[in-house]
UniProtKB/TrEMBL annotation:
Its main location: membrane. The keyword Thylakoid does not apply. GO terms for cellular component: plasma membrane. PANTHER family: LOW-AFFINITY PHOSPHATE TRANSPORTER PHO91 (PTHR10283:SF92), SOLUTE CARRIER FAMILY 13 MEMBER (PTHR10283). It comes from the Bacteria. This is DASS family sodium-coupled anion symporter. It is a multi-pass membrane protein. It comes from Antarcticibacterium flavum. The keyword Transmembrane applies. It is found in: Membrane.
Length: 475
């Protein structure tokens, strides 16, 4: 589930590795120098040594995430290593807590989602779900497009949006090769990656920024359950997908043309070995049980992190996922999230949040202005850098500002930032789904502007309004 610009560039045009290394070395040195200067300028004369170190680490991490002088996940490792090395030299510091973020509930929740996605992909359950849903799309071109986009959005709630996009593009290829389907190529090549990115809003495991928001709220003593997140994320994701579909239909003039989905029916009738059928059913049972326990965790009392053990143990014990599949899981995302949690813990422990809140206490900032500002900043930053890194930077800062502004409900701002990070669709390198589609050569860079502007402007507005409403009723 990598979402870095470097990953996207490799997908598009084989980014020259040697040139990249030379450039990134210079960027790293610049980040170190700038971070040192910022630490010197913004420090308080009464800061302890550990506070200076954490402040420097904060600026360095932000710089490295923005420039990607080193891969985003490597910044997460650097954070943990830096904290263990520097804080471990202080007799009063317990450095184990910075390493223990690897066992945080958010990490286990994400890992369970990765195992489910891997099991679905290996057994072809993801494709099978599409084959079941396909006949319900009808034969009209515009409704087939809507159906494909909605399936993409739903699958992205439990799978990597990158894997979902690749699977859907491969599946609909025969449709685009039909004489009557050629005019659909643009609309599908723009609609599917957008739906994959937007659909990730729906669940905590759907996108890394969602998990960052939940983890940051847990750090300040606020629990957001799986179903509570879905109450916020799913309606916005489905509505945005529907609205973008309407925009694409109008833009490319798709009317009442009919298309044939017989190629999907032929695929469905192909003989499937008994062993594969059994594996599909096993994955389906485990998926159903896991999602049910996630949704009912607040009533059963079983933590969502514990529930993640169901797919992890079940799929490996029954031989659905072996060592090779485990090695291919997106561990880099977990490294980035764990590093971000460690950084947030250090900032809070060293009192930097309290210090900057005190500094801002004299400034009157309206909470709703903050909400709008941070939501759109999240979209802008996520268009040009990893959306996981962007939320890792923004959410702790937003929580501090939120406390200073006297926010009535502290859950609104972090959730809005996490959701808005999935609205970044402006460039081919903004998300891996965009990069995958752009690499086919059938979409021009300028054509991504439609989704980037529409979703980037409307998305935050819908997210803000819906998050405020849901938080008022349920939180």
């Amino acid at each position: 589930m990598s979402d870095s610009r470097y990953y996207s560039l490799k997908q598009i045009a084989g980014f020259p590795i040697r040139y990249a290394r030379e450039t990134k070395t210079g960027m790293f040195l610049v980040c170190v120098i700038v971070s040192t200067l910022l630490t010197f300028l913004l420090r308080d004369p009464e800061f302890a040594k550990t506070q200076h170190l954490v402040l420097f680490l904060l600026f360095l991490s932000i710089g490295l995430w923005i420039t990607e002088a080193i891969p985003p996940f490597a910044v997460g490792i650097l954070i943990i290593g830096f904290l263990v090395f520097t804080m471990g030299r202080e007799d009063t510091m317990d450095v184990k807590q910075y390493v223990q973020t690897w066992s945080d509930g958010v990490i286990w929740l994400f890992l369970g989602g990765f195992f489910l996605a891997s099991g679905m992909k290996k057994t072809g359950l993801d494709t099978r779900l599409l084959l079941i849903a396909a006949p319900r799309f009808g034969s009209m071109a515009k409704y087939i497009v809507l159906g494909l986009m909605m399936v993409t959005a739903v699958l992205s709630m439990v799978m990597s949006n990158t894997a979902t996009t690749a699977m859907m593009i491969a599946t609909v290829a025969p449709l685009l090769n039909q004489p009557s389907g050629r005019q659909l190529s643009k609309i599908l090549y723009l609609g599917i990656p957008a739906a994959a990115a937007i659909g990730g809003m729906g669940t905590i495991i759907g996108s890394a920024p969602n998990a960052i928001a939940v983890g940051a709220l847990e750090a300040v003593g606020i629990q957001v359950s799986f179903i509570e997140w879905m109450l916020v994320g799913i309606p916005v994701a489905l509505l945005l997908t529907l609205l973008f579909w309407l925009v694409l239909i109008k833009k490319y003039g798709i009317g009442n043309e009919t298309l044939s989905l017989n190629f999907l029916k032929r695929t469905a009738l192909e003989a499937i070995p008994t062993e594969e059928i059994i594996q599909k059913n096993v994955v389906l049972v485990i998926l159903t049980l896991t999602v049910f326990l996630w949704l009912t965790s607040q009533w059963t009392g079983i933590p969502v992190a514990v529930v993640s053990g169901v797919p992890i143990v079940g799929l490996t014990m029954l031989g659905i996922i072996d060592a090779d599949e485990v090695r291919t899981l997106p561990w880099d995302t977990l490294m980035l999230v764990a590093g971000g949690l460690s950084l947030g813990l250090a900032i809070q422990e060293q009192g930097l949040i309290v210090y900057f809140i005190d500094q801002m206490s004299t400034i009157e900032i309206n909470f709703y202005v903050l909400l709008v500002l941070f939501s759109f900043i999240s979209v802008v930053l996520s268009n040009f850098m990893s959306n996981t890194a962007a939320t890792t930077i923004l959410i702790p800062i937003a929580i501090s500002f939120s406390a200073a502004s006297g926010a009535v409900n502290p859950v609104v701002l972090p959730i809005a930032i996490g959701l808005c990070a999935s609205c970044a669709l402006l460039l081919p390198v903004s998300t891996p789904p965009n990069a995958i589609v752009y690499s086919t050569g059938r979409v021009e860079q300028s054509e991504f502007r439609l989704g980037g502007v529409f979703v980037g402007l409307l998305g935050p507005v819908l997210i803000i309004l819906w998050t405020l409403l849901v938080s008022y009723i349920f939180f």
